[in-house]
Amino acid sequence: MGRSGDPGVTAVGSTGSTGEAVDRDARGDVPVRRLTVLYDAECPLCTFARGWLARQRQLVPLEFVPAGSGEARRRFPAVDHARTLSDITVIGDGGQLYRGPAAWVVCMWALREHRATAHRMATPAGMKVAKQVVLGAAKYREAMWQRRQTGGGAYRREDGWSYDPKDGWFHQPSGQATAAAGSDACDSGCRVGD
Fold this sequence. Notes:
Blueprint: E1 9-11, E2 35-39, H1 44-55, E3 62-66, H2 70-75, H3 81-84, E4 89-92, E5 96-99, H4 100-109, H5 115-121, H6 124-149, E6 155-156, E7 161-164, E8 168-171, H7 175-181
Parallel strand pairs: 2-3
Antiparallel strand pairs: 1-5, 2-4, 4-5, 6-7, 7-8
Helix pairs in contact: 4-5, 4-6
């Protein structure tokens, strides 16, 4: 999939699954036989994407390792593991390192049903689209992270009841319920004659 000079692709030292050093180079002329996806196991979006990727038919085997884990640190000592928690990272068995949009594209390239799409996404125009997808995912991840840090967000039901961890339960009638009740409604939304 790309050469080490391509944006988002660099070479790193790595060890194989048995711990031995991989002596294949990352110049781009060595075929990729396996990809390791470092994903944030605490992120709902990341675990969903991991599950989806795992269920797809793969032309190149994908292996999933939680980012920042002991296993990831042992296998890839030269990688910035703090960064892998904030940016999708894929590592080829030849030492190729893909981050951000390039990582999403190489994951698609590994899948039977999506390889053609990956080739289109690898173009300059396609990479702009891939970058927007990654930025959207990053915004979602940031919002989820902030939500976890504040103890969650408000839970809202369709009937107008909401729960906020700081304030508890409260009721706020929807605009439709108030409009349907008209001027004959009391504060609770019921009709005066009821």
